[in-house]
Each structure stands twice: as C-alpha cells, then as structure tokens.
Amino acid sequence: MTAEDRDWFQDPPPRRTGTHALIMRGTQLLLVTRPYRSAVAGWGLPGGSAAADELPRAALSRHLANRLTLRGSAGPMLVVDHVPAKPGLHVEGTNYVYRVAIPDDAEPVVTESGRLGEARWVERANVGELAVDHSLRRIEQALLANDFGDCLELLLGVPIERSSEQAA
Fold first, then answer.
1. pLDDT tens string 67-125
2. What pTM does this model have?
3. CA atoms within a 13 Å half-sphere pointing along the CA-CB vector of 2
4. What's the pLDDT band for 164 if we cut at 50, 70, 90?
5. CATH class of 16-167
6. Domain map (residue ranges) of the chain
7. What is the CB-side half-sphere exposure of residue 86 using CA atoms within 13 A?
C-alpha cells in the first residue's frame, strides 16, 4: 500500500501527545529534569504524555499532581510544538504548552513515582544555562507567547512562518 492509498483517517500514524506547563513565579519559572530523556534534553518544562483519549489539559493536571504534588489547571494554550519522528529515539509528536497558575505558597515536591530528577525555580534570564536545543527554543517561545498573549505554532521549537496562502 502506498502513502496515497492509505486511509489516514482509519489508519493514522502513531503520534505522541505531550503536554507541558509554563509555571511562573515573578521572574522565575519552574523547570524539571528528566533523567530518562537525557539524550534529548535534561531540563525542560514540567508535564508528560497524554494517555489514549485523554485531553492534553487533563493529562497536564494529572502529571503536575502525580509528579510534583502541584494542584493547577491548564490556563491559556501558549504553544503547539510539532516534533518529527526520530527513529530509535521517539515517535512523531505534538506538544502543547499551557500557562498554569499555582498558589503562591505551593512548592513542587518530586515524587518517587514521577520519574523526574529535580524541580527548580530558575530566573528567566538563566534558563539557557540549563535547557538546550528544542527544549530551550520551546521555553523561549512559550515565554514570548505568554508576554504577548499569543498562541504560537512551532516546529522543534522554531516558529512556523505562515505563507501568504495560509494567511488568507
């Protein structure tokens, strides 16, 4: 069967849905380490994958509670980041980044079952000292979207330029 013959609605490709939180406290944001994904990026925004038939925003609330003991609901969507498949590393995915507000006195506590290494409040200006590659680009774009009230579409953390055809 060729790609042209395939019924993409009935037989879709596998695709991971990731969900992440931009949690700010003044000029700081919350970053976490993922020891199991160190080949991709050690530091990034808290979150995780959605289960089958689970809304991304519901998955985010679940991951924040289970991994960091934080109670927070997904607010406005800031970024949709498309990640092509990398054979041997990961399947194709779409990552959603939401702004999440938590109570001022809430502190993240990494749980044993959460598979995270560390959670740390990081000054916005210092994020590049920890996050790298597409994780850093995704964080930078989420911060810009948060500042300007936009929702940005990205490809590996880089904004997708809209052509004149798409804009019409």
1. 999 998 899 999 999 999 988 877 899 999 999 999 989 999 999 877 788 999 999 99
2. 0.88
3. 2
4. very low
5. alpha beta
6. 16-167
7. 7
The structure tokens 């500042």 sit at: 147
Residue 113 main-chain phi, psi, to 5 deg: -80, -5
What's the token pair of residue 166? Answer: 């798409």
List the structure tokens of 37. Answer: 């994904």
Say whether 105 sits in a helix, a strand or coil: coil
Dmax over CA atoms of the chain, in Å, equals 57
Dihedrals φ, ψ of 96, to 5°?
Answer: -110, 130
6-18 residue pLDDT tens: 776 777 778 899 9
Amino acid at 36: Y
Neighbours of 36 (CB within 10 A): 10
Euclidean distance between CA atoms 168 and 155, whole angstroms:
21
Nearest to 137 by CA among 70, 82, 72: 82
